Automatic annotation (TrEMBL):
It comes from Muraenolepis orangiensis (Patagonian moray cod). This is Cystinosin. The chain crosses the membrane at residues 53-71, 91-114, 134-154, 166-184, 190-210. One of its GO terms (molecular function) is L-cystine transmembrane transporter activity. InterPro entries: LC_transporter (IPR005282), PQ-loop_rpt (IPR006603). It is found in: Endomembrane system. Coiled coil: none annotated. Keywords: Membrane, Repeat, Transmembrane, Transmembrane helix, Transport. It catalyses: L-cystine(out) + H(+)(out) = L-cystine(in) + H(+)(in). Pfam families: PQ-loop. NCBIfam families: 2A43. It is a multi-pass membrane protein. The keyword Nucleotide-binding does not apply.
């Protein structure tokens, strides 16, 4: 314990690390003007500065790759004036997922009460949300809404959202609504309620790619489904996986699922349904759907 004498404005102390991780130092005061719970210093303990820099670079690579991965599909839709190759169930579920992800990130990043709850529960834990996470989720939601606008004006081939996707979405929002009433009743802390949104996002991520993969299989074509989107998403997901090795497993599951489906989409596009082999059949299917 280091004592700050009355009348002093600073104190010097030494911190020794015994293992890699994070150390939090708290200020305990008998003055009512200083809140001990909100006065803390966090020290990140790393084994190598080079490793830290590599970690930061990797983080920015997957952030940029994931952020721009949405644009090739926008271009694909605009170029063909068609959304026939973009599965509506995938789009519908994706919007729900990113709404929930945005609420989760905004709550943890911008709401002081939620941030304080997290630090009380995890005093030495790594804070799970950064500014880049907030930007990514809000940006992704915005681009998904652009998809919706394109679906409203471009050729859709008679596509509609399936009853299964409607049912899944309704169940997700009922889950969130029930959690809200429980939180309002004081049974569930607000931090716990905010976690409901992350659970929905994870659940949506597990299932949202399946309709698109099945539609590609049924059509024997990936026409209208942007491979640029897939490749950039694969790059982002792959670099995100390295964050687990480097000590940040927060987004590991999302990246793992995305990478697995990206590989499937690449196999469909480059191996199973090559445009050069099936060009005529694809064009016929696109006009009939």
């Amino acid at each position: 314990m280091v004592l700050l004498q009355q009348g002093s404005s600073s104190v010097t102390f030494e911190v020794k690390a015994h293992s890699i991780g994070q150390v939090t130092v708290y200020l305990e005061s008998n003055s009512s003007e200083i809140l001990s719970s909100s006065t803390r210093i966090r020290f990140a303990v790393v084994s190598s500065n080079t490793l830290t820099i590599i970690n930061e670079v990797i983080g920015w690579i997957y952030f940029v790759a994931w952020s721009i991965s949405f644009y090739p599909q926008v271009w694909e839709n605009w170029r063909g004036k068609s959304v026939v190759g973009l599965n509506f169930d995938f789009l519908f579920l994706n919007i729900t997922g990113f709404i929930c992800y945005s609420i989760f990130n905004v709550g943890l990043f911008w709401v002081p009460y939620i941030k304080e709850e997290f630090l009380k529960v995890n005093p030495n834990g790594v804070y799970p949300v950064e500014a880049s996470d907030v930007f990514f989720s809000l940006h992704a939601l915005l681009i998904c809404l652009v998809y919706v606008g394109q679906a409203a004006i471009y050729e859709r081939g008679g596509q509609t959202v399936s009853r299964i996707s409607w049912a899944i979405t309704i169940i997700c929002w009922m889950f969130i609504l029930i959690g809200l009433f429980v939180a309002l009743g004081g049974v569930l802390p607000w931090l716990g309620y905010l976690s409901f949104f992350s659970y929905v996002k994870l659940g949506i991520t597990v299932i949202k790619y399946t309709p698109q993969a099945y539609m590609n299989y049924r059509r024997k074509s990936t026409g209208g489904w942007s491979i640029g989107n897939v490749l950039l998403d694969f790059i982002g997901g792959t670099f995100n996986e390295w964050q687990l090795i480097l000590g940040d497993p927060t987004k590991f599951l999302l990246g793992l699922i995305s990478v697995a489906f990206d590989i499937l989409f690449m196999v469909q596009h480059y191996c199973l349904y090559q445009p050069s082999r099936h060009h005529a059949a694809i064009e016929a299917q696109l006009t009939k759907l």
